[in-house]
Design goal:
alpha+beta; about 20% strand; single chain; 10-stranded mixed β-sheet; about 40% helix; 3-stranded antiparallel β-sheet; Arc Repressor Mutant, subunit A
Length: about 475
C-alpha cells in the first residue's frame, strides 16, 4: 500500500528583547547558571507578572510578516503541568485567544536542478501565540540540575496546519520561517542557543484518504537538518509498523541526530491534560489599528519577495538570487554596491559577492560580513576599474584578496603593486602572438581544421609574455587574424 505523510510543525522562537516577558530581569544567553532570575521568575510568594510591551510588539510584527490576522483582544492563560523546569508549576501562555490567527509561510521547494528555481507555495498557519519560556535541565549520570536563566524569556509558538507532506517541505518551511524572523528583527534564531526549537507532528495515511492518521510528535530537533532527517526517519518507521501489521500509538518520541535514531518518551498529552484557565493576574490586551500600522511600517521585504525583485530589476540568474537573499545584510551589501558601481554592473557585482566575498568570509577565523574590511565602496571601485580596462580580471582577483585582508582601496593596491594594465603596443602584441602560434603547431593545425577552442592554447603564452598586461579581447582578435592568414 502507498502512504502519504502529513506533517505539521510547532516552532518556538525566542523573541530578542532586553528583558523577560513578565519581569524586568535581563534576558540573555551564556551567563552563569541561575543569575538571570528574580522573584517573579522563581515564582516566590506574593510576586505578580507585568507585561513586557516589546514582546507584544514583536509578536504582532511576526504576525504581520506572515500575513496573520491580529486579534483585537488577546488574553493570557495558565498551562498547568508539574516539571522541574517550570518553577510556578504552570506556564503563562495563550489558549483560546492568541495574539495572531492564520497566516502562511511561503516556501520554495527544491528545483529539478540545483541552479533552477523550484516551485513556490504557501504553507498555512493555525496560530501564533506569545508565552514564557521555561528553564533548562542538565542531566548527568547521577543527578539532574536546573538552570532558570531561560525561564521567563518571551517565546513565540508558531503552529502550522498539517499541510506538509515530505521532509524536504518541512526543511524549506523552517528555512523560510527562520529567515523571516531574522529579517524582521524578531529573533536571531540560533538553534544552538535554543532561540529556535521545533517539534514535528507526523502521521501517515493511505494515498487518497482524507482522515488523519495517528499523530506522533518528534522532539529534540535541534538543527534544521535534523528536522529533515528526523521526519524522514519517522515516516519510514510508521510505514514499517503498518506494513508488518502493527498499530501506531499517539506518542512523543525523542530524536537523536547524532545516531539517526529515535525512541519513545511518553504518550502524547491532549489539551485538556493541561487544565488551561485564564490567568487572574494579567489583563487582556486590546490591539488597535494604529498599533498595527506602526509595526507594519517596520516590516521589511522578505527573502522570497526580494528574490523575485532581484531577478526582475537586476536581471540576476537564480544561481545568484538563491544565495544573496537569505541574509538581509548580504542582500543590502549587494544593493549598496550596485548603487555605487552602476545598475549595468549588477551581475558582475553578484558574482564577486557569491564567488569571492563569501569564499573569504568562510575561511577559518575570518570576520563576519559586518566586520569585513571590504566595504561596498571598495568592491564597487574594483568593479569599475575592471570595467574600464584599467585592471585585468586576473589582477583584480589578487587585488580583492589583499583588499579583504587590509581594507585598502583597490586603486591604491593596484598602483602600489603595479597591477594596472598598461596600453599594449600593437607591434609588441603581434610579436607575442606570432611566437605563441609558432610554438604550438598542433593547436595551429586543430584551429585551422575547425576546432575553435584550440585558440585557447595560444592565449596563456601570450599573457605570460605580456606579464598580464595584454587585453584579452585584443589578444583573441590578433590571434584570429594571424591564424586566418597564410
Amino acid at each position: 500500500m502507498n502512504y502519504e505523510a502529513v506533517i505539521g510543525l510547532e516552532v518556538h522562537v525566542q523573541i530578542k528583547t532586553h528583558s523577560k516577558v513578565f519581569t524586568r530581569v535581563a534576558a540573555g544567553y551564556g551567563q552563569p547558571a541561575n543569575t538571570l532570575t528574580d522573584p517573579v521568575v522563581l515564582a516566590l510568594p506574593g510576586t505578580l507578572p507585568v507585561m513586557n510591551k516589546a514582546a507584544l510588539d514583536a509578536a504582532i510584527k511576526a504576525g504581520l510578516l506572515l500575513n496573520a490576522a491580529i486579534a483585537p483582544v488577546c488574553k493570557w492563560d495558565r498551562k498547568n503541568y508539574f516539571y522541574p523546569d517550570s518553577p510556578k508549576n504552570y506556564q503563562i501562555s495563550q489558549y483560546d485567544q492568541p495574539i495572531c490567527v492564520g497566516g502562511a509561510v511561503e516556501i520554495e521547494l527544491p528545483g529539478p536542478a540545483r541552479n533552477v528555481m523550484g516551485a513556490h507555495r504557501l504553507v498555512p498557519l493555525t496560530r501564533i501565540h506569545l508565552e514564557e519560556d521555561v528553564g533548562k535541565l542538565h542531566h548527568s549520570a547521577t543527578e539532574s540540575l536546573v538552570d532558570y536563566n531561560r525561564a521567563g524569556t518571551p517565546l513565540l509558538e508558531i503552529v502550522s496546519e498539517p499541510e506538509m507532506h515530505s521532509a524536504e517541505e518541512a526543511f524549506a518551511y523552517l528555512t523560510s520561517l527562520r529567515a523571516t524572523m531574522i529579517y524582521g528583527g524578531i529573533s536571531d534564531c540560533d538553534m544552538e542557543k535554543g532561540q529556535l526549537r521545533c517539534d514535528a507532528n507526523i502521521s501517515i495515511r493511505p494515498v487518497g484518504e482524507t482522515k488523519l492518521g495517528t499523530k506522533v510528535e518528534l522532539k529534540n530537533l535541534n538543527s534544521i537538518s535534523f528536522v529533515r532527517d528526523g521526519i524522514d526517519l519517522e515516516i519510514k518507521r510508521q510505514v514499517a509498523v503498518l506494513e508488518r501489521g502493527g498499530v501506531l500509538i499517539q506518542e512523543t518520541r525523542d530524536y537523536d541526530g547524532q545516531t539517526g535514531t529515535s525512541q519513545s518518551l511518553r504518550s502524547k498529552e491532549m489539551a485538556h491534560d493541561y487544565r488551561y484557565f485564564p490567568d487572574p493576574d494579567l489583563m487582556p490586551v486590546k490591539v488597535d489599528a494604529a498599533w498595527q500600522e506602526r509595526l507594519r511600517a517596520e516590516c521589511p521585504e522578505l527573502p522570497l519577495a526580494k528574490q523575485r525583485r532581484f531577478a526582475e530589476r537586476y536581471q540576476l540568474p537564480y544561481t545568484l538570487t538563491s544565495v544573496l537573499v537569505w541574509q538581509r545584510a548580504l542582500a543590502d551589501y549587494f544593493e549598496e554596491t550596485v548603487r555605487l558601481a552602476g545598475l549595468d554592473q549588477a551581475q558582475v557585482v553578484g558574482n564577486w559577492i557569491v564567488n569571492d566575498l563569501l569564499r573569504e568570509l568562510a575561511a577559518p577565523a575570518a570576520p563576519g560580513l559586518a566586520e569585513a574590511k571590504v566595504r561596498p565602496s571598495h568592491l564597487a571601485a574594483l568593479v569599475q576599474l575592471v570595467g574600464s580596462g584599467a585592471v585585468r580580471a586576473h589582477a583584480a582577483k589578487e587585488i580583492f584578496t589583499e583588499m579583504f585582508a587590509t581594507g585598502e582601496s583597490p586603486e591604491a593596491i593596484a598602483d602600489r603593486r603595479g597591477l594596472k594594465a598598461a596600453p599594449t603596443d600593437a607591434g609588441e602584441l603581434e610579436q607575442w602572438c606570432r611566437a605563441a602560434i609558432a610554438g604550438n603547431a598542433k593547436a595551429q593545425a586543430e584551429f585551422r581544421a575547425g576546432k575553435d577552442s584550440a585558440i585557447n592554447a595560444f592565449k596563456g603564452p601570450v599573457m605570460k609574455a605580456a606579464k598580464g598586461r595584454a587585453d584579452p579581447p585584443r589578444v583573441d582578435a590578433m590571434l584570429r587574424q594571424l591564424l586566418a592568414g597564410p
